[in-house]
Design brief:
Blueprint (H helix, E strand, L loop, with lengths): L3 E5 L3 H12 L3 E6 L6 H5 L8 E2 L4 H6 L9 H6 L2 H9 L5 E4 L3 E4 L4 H15 L1 E4 L2 E7 L2 E7 L4 E3 L2 E4 L14 H8 L4 E7 L3 E3 L3 H4 L4 E11 L5 E12 L3 E3 L1 H7 L10 E6 L6 H14 L18 H8 L12 H12 L1 E8 L7 E6 L17 E3 L13 H17 L3
Parallel strand pairs: 1-2, 1-10, 2-6, 10-19
Antiparallel strand pairs: 3-5, 4-5, 7-8, 8-9, 11-18, 12-15, 12-17, 13-14, 13-16, 14-15, 16-17
Length: about 425
């Protein structure tokens, strides 16, 4: 008799789990609260869907999962990025590799990835629209689910793949945490990860909308004797509340215990130049604008929006002629451009985060199967588990790998 499996949640992990279980001989029902599968997947990577990262070893993947990466050894071992690429391309969606080994569909359309997995899940499972109210558990063994509509569905095995708390408009509202707790599982406190940051300094709001494309940052931890805990080069964005953009989202994942004022971010506005080279560049600009006021002599060096902020922070009178600026004043300007520092006051709300930190404790899940250690026949996959990774496709690879492993595991008698 074919095992009857219920998968809760039709995101990346859920669609993979449902398709895999069905392809391996199970009778699968995939329950999704939305009318369409993969709504959160549709908006990932700014609508382009960074499906994975071209890592060649399991250890390389684990190194990019700061939240309980070792737990994923079994899942990654059985389904690597190369396996995911083969899986997707064999279903008619060509992929490409971009900067940072990030893998995207050639079309740059997340819809192509969603359609691929929705078709896979639809082929091997029956998709039902609904919302699970509770698990049916007897003698520490799952036997089905009860929907909010009152309908009861029997099952031999259940996979919870409901996602976390990020992007709640897509249906990711933490339903799986309540189901896990009902089953006796510990849910580690949730927090945002890969999230914009709120900043103390008011000049960020003056710079709202300004994007820096070739800057560098260092994250400094005051509680660890001002140790630099993260460095990056690339793009960031100033907002009305602070800072955002790819570098900032990645940096947020390293701020494991957020406290107001604990973390500072040093921004190097001219990372390609040494302080000496930058000073020479400024001298050249000043010599070409010798009779101009200071505030009017920086247009070739900085974005227009940034000029008044830098002038104010430098302490150099804005109407001072550039030929009157002293060596000491110029040295302060160089230092400011190489070390524009902002103080982090906190994360933005979790509904603005790319992923959720926290979730079902990995100590209570068998990493070789994704099965609960507390309730027989109950499995977990994806973001509902207490694992979180850096940007670059690692979170989606985690979802697909754990979904694949759960789908294989439920089909084994």
């Amino acid at each position: 008799m074919r095992p009857r499996v219920i998968v809760i949640g039709a995101g990346a992990a859920g669609m993979m789990a449902a398709g895999t279980a069905g392809e391996n001989g199970c009778d699968v029902i995939l329950i999704e609260r939305n009318q369409k599968c993969g709504r959160k997947l549709m908006i990932t990577g700014k609508g382009r869907c960074n499906v994975s990262n071209k890592c060649k070893t399991v250890q390389e993947l684990i190194d990019n999962v700061p939240g309980n990466g070792r737990f994923l050894y079994g899942a990654f071992s059985k389904f690597m990025p190369c396996d995911l690429v083969d899986f997707i391309e064999s279903r008619g969606v060509p992929l490409k590799v971009e900067r940072g080994n990030r893998i995207f569909p050639v079309s740059d359309k997340a819809a192509d990835i969603v359609d691929c997995f929705a078709a896979y899940a639809g082929k091997y499972s029956r998709v039902v629209t609904g919302r699970v109210k509770e698990l049916i558990i007897n003698d520490a063994c799952v036997s089905g689910v009860k929907l909010k509509s009152g309908e009861t569905l029997a099952a031999d095995k259940v996979i919870i793949a409901t996602g976390g708390l990020s992007y709640p408009a897509t249906g990711s509202t933490g339903d799986g945490y309540g189901l896990a707790e009902q089953a006796g599982h510990t849910v580690i406190d949730t927090a945002p990860s890969l999230v914009p940051l709120e900043i103390h300094e008011g000049f960020c709001s003056e710079l709202m909308g300004l994007s820096l494309r070739n800057s560098a940052i260092k994250v400094i931890d005051a509680k660890r004797s001002d140790k630099v805990i993260y460095q990056d080069f690339g793009e960031m964005l100033f907002t009305h509340f602070g800072v955002s953009g790819p570098m900032i989202l990645s940096a947020s994942a390293h701020m494991r215990d957020m406290e107001r004022g604990r973390y500072r971010i040093s921004i190097d506005l001219k990372p390609a130049l040494t302080p000496e080279q930058l000073d020479a560049r400024i001298l050249r600009d000043f010599s070409e604008n010798t009779n101009k006021n200071f505030i009017n002599a920086l247009d070739a060096l900085l974005p227009k929006k940034l000029v008044p902020v830098i002038v104010k922070l430098s302490g150099i009178p804005l109407n001072l002629k550039v030929n009157q600026i002293t060596r000491e004043q110029r040295a302060k300007l160089v230092s400011l451009l190489k070390n524009l520092t902002v103080t982090v006051t906190g994360f933005r709300p979790v509904d603005e985060a790319v992923v959720t930190r926290g979730g079902v404790s990995t100590k209570e899940i068998n990493p070789s199967t994704m099965e609960s250690k507390l309730v027989k026949g109950l499995y977990f996959a994806g973001e509902v588990i207490d694992v979180d990774a850096y940007t670059g496709g690692f979170n989606l690879q985690t979802a697909f790998s754990t979904g694949r492993l759960a789908g294989i595991s439920v089909s084994e008698v």
